[in-house]
Each structure stands twice: as C-alpha cells, then as structure tokens.
Design brief:
- It contains five helices and two strands, in the order ααβαβαα.
- Strand 1, helix 3 and strand 2 form a beta-alpha-beta unit.
- The chain has a two-stranded parallel sheet with strand order 1-2.
- It is mainly alpha-helical.
Length: about 90
Amino acid sequence: MPKASIANVPIATFNDLETVERRFRENPNEIAAIILEPIMMNVGLCMPQKGFLEGLRTLCDKHGALLIFDEVRRARSCAGAGLRNTLA
C-alpha cells in the first residue's frame, strides 16, 4: 500500500472507544467507514470488550459512517458462522 494512502487512514485502538471518538473529532465529516475484524484473529485471538462493538455502531450512526466487519478469516475458521452466531 502506498505511504500516501496510509497517511490518509485514521487508526484507532481496538477495544478503545475513546480513540475512535477522537478520530471522528479530529476528522469531522471525513470518515466514511470503520472497517475491523470484530474478533481479531491476526494477533492471536482478541475478543471485543463488552459494549465495544455496540459503541462503534452508536458512533458510526452518530457520524453517518458505515460499520464494516471483516470476517473473512473468522467465517472460514468457524464453518461460516461468523460474528452473528458468536454474539447470539
């Protein structure tokens, strides 16, 4: 990925809603979407803290941004169940 592209992508800390909120404040009307693995598997297995995903949904709704869960690895390793069955 080109360095110029990376420079235009605000990064927030997983499981830290304050950093996400800060990115929205620092980039008003500039964030179109949040894309994340809802259960991070690229660093081992990192579960979202209670309320984190719901908080992301609230922040995205407030700021008019999409919330996109990237579940490619998770779905493959869980026979297609994905996050929906994990949170149910």
